[in-house]
């Protein structure tokens, strides 16, 4: 079966699901299926003069993912990687990594050979992690042992700029999203309810209010809008984008701002508090988890949420399996007025810092670790990570990969993304993401990304800046307390325990706690980034 014209991000959703975060997923593409980052060129084995895969030496490396919980399952992709690279990987599991557990792990001196982490968030920044002897500086090692990463960075200077510090330090092998994989989430709504009620897809805050009120009064939805707190206005623009703001740091006309300080954020909170008072927002939203949101959406208790693209496929499949008529579809991020483009939605940098593979400074197998990670940046490794194993998940027809029925029409009814979860990496792995065009069951899933992309988010995106070690320590000290304050203030106002006008005092508290200094640090780091 030919590869359908589909958005590659479905695999990202599933990959995160495998890591134990139920339906916390993302990563999708847009209307064309061309990746901004082409498959690596040159020798498919990308061998240096004195090296070729598989590597000799009977070497086993330990590998840990910061978000991995439980005992990792051995998958066909793991066996194939071992066969091709000649390097065995022993994955380390356990409970998901907290800041405290990470600190204890560092203090123990027993880091795994390779560690996936968001090193941009390391106290003091990546340079400090190198300076303190936790991870290796990779600059010279890339020249020696990673010709494929080196070539990739030379071919993509915009990515090279992202993955090093201001000091020029390369500290990890990156996970780089394709251009089409940077948007993967947004509002999701019951299209069948809208049709039944004679309502169109809501595009503005006022239209959303009308729709949610109809869901409550005419469909008897107990929680017309259900969502988790991470979708309020930080992880995505959420409904805050209609007010021209979102949480956290972003850029306005070259100046770094902190959305929670802006007067429009107070107006957004006032609206959310009114919706909550009217019973339009799930009364349990402050404490529910992803599984509960899923249950409410598929049971008819709720008619709208904000989530990742994979949710649409999952919800429609669940309804079909239960023999129920339900049609879940994407809705655009709300705008302030009809015909306007919302300022914010959801958009990641090509390099967000997540799933970056650093090598322990204590490893006894530096070359093996470098070679294993570098394999993903070969043409052969890219094909494996994207399309899986030739003959099993795809065949070549006219030189182009075509999915087999094992993927496209799985005999056990397993969706294509879940099949590929076992036979490829596709996402959340140190590599350049390629568009995989997986077949999709529901047209609503395909349409979602084009709908969610329609924002001005790109002009506000703060790149992956790297404050200096001293700046990073100071920034962390300031923001730890401010982040806690903001979240508490947000919930108090939306839940109605405090009036929205009280938000002014929280803004002043943020100023008293040093937010202006934090902005100065971010601005300086941003300007240095632009000069790289």
TrEMBL record:
Gene3D superfamilies: Periplasmic binding protein-like II. It comes from the Bacteria. Pfam families: SBP_bac_1. InterPro entries: Bact_solute-bd_prot1 (IPR050490), SBP (IPR006059). This is Putative aldouronate transport system substrate-binding protein.
